[in-house]
Structure formats: structure tokens, C-alpha cells
Amino acid sequence: MARNPKARAVSHPPLFTTFKPAGVAATKLATITLELDEYEAIRLADYEGLEHEEAAEMMGISRSTFTRLIERARKKMALMLVEGSKVVIDGGSVHFKENVYQCKACNHRFRARIHEEEKECPLCHSSELIDFAKGFGHGSCCHHTEEEGA
């Protein structure tokens, strides 16, 4: 029997979760799911330019696990580019270190630690916010604490 995967640390939820070729109806495309940990691996290695060892440490996984993760993610991205598939970022066993919020009043986007109680827009001080992590079922249900390194 396979064991449950350990929650992998992800810096923050993605701002965008669906990508598809322009001019083609989404219903006509095959869908590839890029899991949140695969997204984080791409972000750390290819966008941030980190070495595998450093990226693995940030995610709380071994270097060999990170290497398998990034290879799987890159394969999915190659399929999307070559075959014109739709990519949806969703799923996986992850814990966000920070959340992204968007103010409904002024549309400003900002990051905050997951466990901060008082959340308001730093520009206009509105408390009417869109919570990006909740879209992934994350947030108040999370039982990680800062002491655990999450």
C-alpha cells in the first residue's frame, strides 16, 4: 500500500491556474493537471533559477525527490506546448507558507503569512479581500504552525 505523501512547502498560491492555446475552445482540448508541488518546482528551478539542492530544501523534500518532481513538471509543460493542451494547476499535498490576497476595493494584490489574523489591504485598508489559497482548500483548515517550519 502506498503511503500518504508528506505535504510539500509551496511559497504561495499561483496567481493564475489555467492556461490554454489562444483561439481554441477549452472544451476541445485535452487537460493536463500540473500539481501545486510541480508548479512550485518549475517556479523555483526555472523562474527563480535555483539549484535543485536549494529548491528541495525550500520545499522540505530531498534533492532526488525534487529532481523527479521537476522532470515530471517539465514533461507536462512540454506536452502543453507541443500538443496544445490546456494546463490546470491544482491538487497535490502542499502547505502554503504565504497567501496571496487581492483587494476588492482597489484591486491591489499582496502577500501575507498564512497565519496572520488581521488581514487588510496595505494600500486602502479594506478588509474585503479575495483569498487565493482558499481556492485550493487551504487556509483556516490548516493545522501547520510556524514552529513546524511551515
Structural class: alpha/beta
Beta-strand portion reads: 15-25%
Runs with pLDDT <50, length 5+?
143-150
| Approximate shape | globular
CATH architecture of the largest domain: Orthogonal Bundle
| Count of DSSP-assigned helices | 3
| CATH level 1 name of the largest domain | Mainly Alpha
User: How far is the N terminus from the C terminus?
Assistant: 27 Å
Whole-angstrom Rg? 17 Å
Describe this structure in words.
The protein has 150 residues and is an alpha/beta fold. The protein folds into two domains: 30-91, Orthogonal Bundle (Arc Repressor Mutant, subunit A), CATH 1.10.10; 95-140, Rubrerythrin, domain 2 (Single Sheet), CATH 2.20.28. Helices cover 27% and strands 20% of the residues. It has helices spanning 36-47, 52-59, 63-83; strands at 8-10, 18-19, 31-34, 86-89, 94-96, 98-103, 109-113, 129-131. A three-stranded mixed sheet has the order 2-4-3. The chain has a three-stranded antiparallel sheet with strand order 7-6-8, with no helix packed on it. A hairpin with a 5-residue loop joins strand 6 (98-103) and strand 7 (109-113). Residues 143-150 have low confidence and may be disordered.
